[in-house]
């Protein structure tokens, strides 16, 4: 299966879920035009409270549709956009990408910066859901499954159905960590 955009989402306010839309405009160095998390510096409320001048490594949030299918199999019905992502993808192992991977989507380029840190808001959305997207394996390793974050390196419009081309960074590759 080739990598594609399933749906795109935006919210002008700090709501947990984002509304589906026919297209989003990615703005270089800023994020999704009209989204509450767009900006060169952090916009996530807890990060603004800690240090409002830190760079925004969370301009674009991507989640793989396969996660939503897995959650459905575990009894949680979650539609695209409901976990707050801007872009829902299919056919790409987002969580396995190394830091610095460039995702080419139409004319836009998103550079993957890290993993989304799942928070209590996920349980507020659906009780028990946090344990499905943030859990420890038998060896004690923590797994964050709620998608990846990125920054916009080249502006462009993204629509459902667009192909996603993956460009890995030069070696050595570094695993994603929370941002």
UniProtKB/TrEMBL annotation:
Family annotation (PANTHER family): METAL-SULFUR CLUSTER BIOSYNTHESIS PROTEINS YUAD-RELATED, MOSC DOMAIN-CONTAINING PROTEIN
Residue ranges annotated for the MOSC domain, each copy included: 19-167
Domain of life: Bacteria
Pfam families: MOSC
GO molecular function: catalytic activity; molybdenum ion binding; pyridoxal phosphate binding
Name of the protein described by the UniProt record: MOSC domain protein
Organism of this sequence: Occultella aeris
Gene3D superfamilies: PK beta-barrel domain-like
């Amino acid at each position: 299966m080739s990598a594609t955009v399933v749906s795109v989402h935006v919210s002008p306010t700090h709501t947990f879920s984002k509304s589906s839309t026919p297209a989003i405009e990615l703005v270089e160095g800023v994020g999704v035009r009209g989204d509450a998390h767009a900006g060169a510096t952090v916009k996530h409320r807890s990060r603004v409270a800690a240090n409002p001048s830190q760079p925004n490594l969370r301009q674009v949030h991507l989640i793989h549709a396969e996660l939503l299918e897995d959650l459905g199999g575990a009894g949680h019905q979650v539609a695209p956009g409901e976990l707050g992502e801007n872009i829902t993808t299919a056919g790409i192992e987002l969580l396995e990408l190394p830091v610095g991977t460039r995702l080419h989507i139409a004319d836009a380029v998103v550079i993957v910066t890290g993993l989304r840190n799942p928070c209590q808001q996920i349980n507020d959305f659906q009780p028990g859901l946090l344990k499905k997207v943030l859990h420890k394996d038998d060896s004690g390793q923590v797994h964050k499954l709620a998608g990846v974050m990125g920054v916009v390196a080249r502006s462009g419009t993204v629509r459902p159905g667009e192909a996603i081309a993956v460009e890995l960074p030069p070696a050595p590759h570094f695993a994603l960590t929370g941002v």
